[in-house]
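Researcher: I'm preparing a figure for a lab meeting and need a structural model of a single chain. I don't have an experimental structure, so a prediction will have to do for now. The sequence is pasted below. Please return the structure as tokens so I can convert it later.
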Amino acid sequence: MCVKQVSVSLDNTPGKFLAVSEYLGAEGINIRAISVADTSDISTVRFVTDNPDKTINVLKSHSYAVKETDVLAVEVPDHPGGFKAVLKPLRDANINVTHLYPFLGRGESGQPIVILGVDKTKEAIEVLQKNWVHTFGREIYTL
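Model: Understood. Here is the structure written out token by token.
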């Protein structure tokens, strides 16, 4: 399923993400998935929340430069090699995975969920949906 990812760049100093977390928490926004990529000076924080539109508004109101991106939330079978069920169909369709990080929870079937950034979102949804129904007899996870 397609979900909204929110990204911000933060100075790599103590307390910068704490401020973001406090602003969102004060507005009742829950962070459901998070990834941090850092350099010596700047960290790029990518996250999925339970209310992306409100998240963007809150962060912009505190002068953060916010980027919004469509990403996928997909269940991954919880066994050795389980990622193959997601990654192989994407590779076979020539779809590149640009980033991946865990969702803080599990799907309706109890399987873990990952957030995937891909270069062809619409095509990836179609490929994964078709593969999931064929392999597992059900739809891919929906947040």
